[in-house]
Amino acid sequence: MTIIDTEPGGLADQVEGRVLRPGEDGFADAARPWNVAVEHHPDLLLVPRSPQDVVAGVRWAAERGLPVAVQSTGHGATEAITGGLLISTLGLDTVEVDAENRIARVGAGVRWAELLARTVPEGLIGLCGSSSDVGVVGYCLGGGLPILGRAFGFAAEQVRSIEIVTPDGRLRTVDGEHDADLFEVLKGGKGNFGVVTSIELDLIPLTDFYGGGIIYPGEDAAEVLTAFRAWAAGLPDGACPSVALLRLPDMEFAPPPLRGRFVVHVRFALPGDKAEGDRLLAPMRAVSTPIMDTAGPLSYLQVDLVNLDPPEPTPFEQAGVLLKEFGEDAQAALLEVAGPGVHSPLLLVELRLMGGALGRPSRVRDAVSGRDAAWCVSALGVPVPPIAELVPPAIEQVLDALRPWATGYTMVNFHGRPGDATDRARAWPPDAFEAISRAKRRYDPDNLMRFGHAVLLPSGEPVEPAIPL
Ligand SMILES: Cc1cc2nc3c(=O)[nH]c(=O)nc-3n(C[C@H](O)[C@H](O)[C@H](O)COP(=O)(O)OP(=O)(O)OC[C@H]3O[C@@H](n4cnc5c(N)ncnc54)[C@H](O)[C@@H]3O)c2cc1C
Q: 425-451 pLDDT, tens per residue?
């Protein structure tokens, strides 16, 4: 297809923002995702300055039958976007905070760190995940599993309204009363229904919390995991633990005592004070001989210190699964493929405890997955030479090992590559999937939004409801 963006009627004439063709100055930077293992090759890139620019972009693409993709930070880039119009939302960077009413309105290019820098001084937080470098909108559209999830629930539950340009080129504000069917499925249904330009979120009164982690030698993984399972099972609802098997490269981002080592990282977050945090964490502090213990009172601006995700753009390949349980047999199965003595190429295998407020039904209907799960597992590797080829099979091996305890579903934010029709449908439980498919037929009948976790394949073929694993 030939694209004539500078001709009368071309997109560049209609927008305030930038329109870039492959090879033009700025194209590569604007297209590059945080996950630098993925390289996008759209026909054209639009960096809008306003929702009206997005309207122009979507209409322009729809008139030409070109598919539309959206990228904010690129933390969720799982596979290349080839062809079509890529809309990079980073220019939609407004943040408005109404502290009195505890509400924030956030543009589609805003990262969590930018929002929190505005809300924490007002005594308020939004439900950020493990990295505040992630985009607020993309994260919430995928449900949003927060660091303090067991205390406050999924981030999507805090979304009050969503401004979106739907594939028909209309700018709509959707909420519980306006296009309520669309509002429901946008919270969890990811990029299926158009280009979100901003969202309005409820904020939570909090500034400080107790958080951090304890790092143990990897050789003690069995002892640490056994103690962790027993400890986690006895924690109150608001306490949020996770554990990761980490094989850290000999690179600067890892603190010196951890570089090039295999370690077990127990993470903990609690909306509580030092006394309560120390009391709850005490049993884990008595296990094995920790290499590091960083847990203590933190400002919520330091939320990244809980999981210690890489701060810089990183190449990664990741996939996840939800578990019904993680008992002794599951632990043994996991350690067989990722424990001490295994030459695993994976940087991380992580288990986050679900339940608590994550297990309660939402006040307003949504399409979030994971409410019935006990654990959210994620396996991640860095696909660079000489281990690039080894990473995908090693991820599969971990998922296979845990399959007997899987719920059969995943969370879209942790699913990884969308895969084929059967695989991608696993990102939602059947009722949510049904609602998403219905809304897709209504709001995107021509399958304009066909990249990523689309519930219509690029061929237009519908995805079937997930079958148990
Ligand atoms: C280091 C790291 C830590 C993470 N931690 C967590 C965590 O703790 N909890 C959690 O739930 N998730 C977590 N994630 C997953 C993350 O929330 C998702 O990948 C999310 O989609 C990222 O959103 P983004 O906008 O930053 O990324 P992008 O790659 O820019 O967007 C990802 C996808 O979201 C959709 N999207 C984004 N913006 C729009 C828009 N404006 N309109 C329509 N669709 C849009 C599109 O489908 C797009 O392909 C983490 C990811 C990484 C890499």
A: 999 999 999 999 999 999 999 999 999
C-beta of 37 in contact with ligand 1 (< 6 A): no
**Residues 225/338, Cβ–Cβ less than 8 Å:** no
| Ligand 1: nearest atom to the Cα of 195 | 42
pTM: 0.96
Could you tell which of 32, 87, 134 is best to mutate to test the pocket of ligand 1, judged by most ligand atoms within 8 Å of the CB? 134
Domains present along the chain, CATH in parentheses: 11-91 (3.30.43.10), 95-205 (3.30.465.10), 208-414 (3.40.462.20)
Per the CB < 8 A criterion, the answer to whether 298 and 305 are in contact is yes
Per-residue pLDDT reduced to its tens digit, 317-331: 999 999 999 999 999
The pLDDT tens digits for 163-185 are: 999 999 999 999 999 999 999 99
Closest atom of ligand 1 relative to the 155 alpha carbon: 11
Name the residue of 45, 50, 70 whose CB sits within 8 Å of the most ligand 1 atoms, as the mutation to test its pocket: 70
Cα 348 to the chain's mean position, in Å? 16
Pairing label, strands 124-125, 204-205: antiparallel
